[in-house]
Each structure stands twice: as structure tokens, then as C-alpha cells.
Amino acid sequence: MQPMRTGLEKIILEALQHTPPQEAPVLAWPFACGPAVANKTRPVGFAEGILTVEVADANWRAQLMDMAPQFLGRINQLVSLKVERLRFIVPPGK
Asked: In a 3-state reduction of DSSP, which class is residue 43?
């Protein structure tokens, strides 16, 4: 399975290289965090080095904040524009 993953990663990296730099972190989020987290979150924007990600509730936010260094490392492997920080937000009323 490793060769398939390597091939898929190569395709993702090539696609991200052709994406405007300001949009790349948002598009890279699902690949950086994996499908389980991607299904429960939504990247909403990238500005001034901060990728903002909407999460379901405060519990999810706390769990993802603990994992932020891992996500940052992975996302910065995928995009050319450095992501300095992840900001997890809970939508109003949740």
C-alpha cells in the first residue's frame, strides 16, 4: 500500500503547487489532518500565517489543539507558504 500512498501524495503535491499560495493551506487541510478529522472539520480561511478551521464543538477544539503541532508539521510539508499557527473555532450557537 505504501507505493500507492506515495503516488497519491505526489499528485496532491503537484496540485497544491499549481494552487495560489493563499489558497493552498485551506485545500491541504484534509490531507494534513487525515479523513477522520477532515470529516468533522472545515477550513474556513488562511490569513497572516494562520489557518482557521471550524470544528463541531469545544471538545473537538481542545483535542485538535493538542494535535496542532503534528498538523502544522504535515501541512507545512505540503504547501509553499508557511502556516505559522492553526486556529480552531466553534461556530456560534454550538
From this structure: strand
